[in-house]
């Protein structure tokens, strides 16, 4: 499938997570250890919010169809862009075309969305799923992926007002549509979404065997455990990271997100709750 990470906290250069860790996201694009595929070379994307962001400002985005590991522009940008909240994604296509409009993260207004997983038999379900998208939102769909369809369904169900309920309704609708078509165990997802202030991360699958997802231990605790790691000094106490798989250097730095659950991360506070499709 794919690998992704979501960071929030003190502004840092994006390459601090994309390139520098032992098992960075760029390393995972070639050598993933916990994904359905080892290689995630069907495109990449980053989305970020500026340090001096004003309310409702559209986040920046850069996406490409080639493999992340060979893109010189991605390396250069990630060295120079500092951000307090950013998403990064490396893609392994589940069947849809390798094209820029299919690369994550997807963007609508001040919202970002990225996904690892799939909707089983999406081609069979696609028409019914997309017909449920709000007619005012439908023209903004640019690609052909199940991931973008999930995003616009969540927007239709009220993502901007109540993200958790919207994603639960989206997941429930996908499962109900699949059942009507005789498609079993249709949904596999780890999803992250944000409006630039709060990050929501979801782990769920219809089978109860979801793709991996991890969240970082508190930075203050890590400093005490690893005083030798200089990089921890650049992070604020409220820094948080959600990843498809750990970045390597400190095995005690990450905890697994429980099955069928979601996390809400806001200014160093995080809350974990059960996820129940509606």
From TrEMBL:
PROSITE patterns: GATASE_TYPE_2
Gene3D superfamilies, per database record: Glutamine Phosphoribosylpyrophosphate, subunit 1, domain 1
Domain (Glutamine amidotransferase type-2) ranges: 2-268
Highest taxon, organism lineage: Bacteria
InterPro entries tied to this protein: EgtC-like, Gamma-glu_amide_hydrolase, GATase_2_dom, Ntn_hydrolases_N
Keywords associated with the record: Glutamine amidotransferase
Protein name: Class II glutamine amidotransferase
């Amino acid at each position: 499938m794919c690998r992704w990470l979501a960071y929030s906290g003190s502004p840092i250069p994006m390459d601090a997570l994309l390139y520098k860790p032992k098992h960075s996201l760029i390393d995972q694009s070639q050598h993933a250890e916990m994904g359905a595929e080892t290689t995630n070379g069907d495109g990449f994307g980053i989305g970020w919010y500026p340090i001096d962001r004003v309310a409702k400002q559209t986040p920046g985005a850069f996406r490409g169809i080639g493999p992340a590991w060979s893109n010189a522009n991605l390396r250069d940008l990630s060295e120079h862009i500092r951000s307090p909240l950013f998403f990064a994604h490396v893609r392994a296509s589940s069947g849809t075309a390798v094209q820029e409009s299919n690369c994550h993260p997807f963007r609508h207004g001040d919202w970002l969305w990225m996904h690892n997983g799939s909707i089983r038999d999406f081609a069979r379900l696609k028409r019914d799923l997309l017909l449920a998208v709000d007619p005012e939102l439908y023209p903004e769909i640019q690609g052909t992926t199940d991931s973008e369809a999930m995003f616009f369904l969540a927007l239709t169900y009220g993502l901007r007002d109540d993200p958790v309920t919207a994603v639960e309704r989206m997941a429930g609708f996908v499962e109900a549509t699949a059942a009507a078509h005789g498609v079993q165990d249709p949904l596999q997802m780890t999803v992250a979404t944000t409006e630039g202030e709060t990050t929501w991360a979801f782990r769920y699958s219809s089978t109860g065997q979801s793709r991996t997802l991890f969240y970082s231990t508190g930075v203050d605790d890590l400093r005490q455990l690893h005083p030798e790691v200089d990089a921890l000094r650049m992070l604020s106490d409220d820094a948080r990271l959600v990843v498809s798989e750990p970045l390597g250097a400190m095995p005690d730095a990450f905890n697994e997100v429980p099955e069928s659950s979601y996390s809400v991360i806001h200014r160093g506070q995080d809350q974990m709750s059960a996820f129940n499709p509606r």
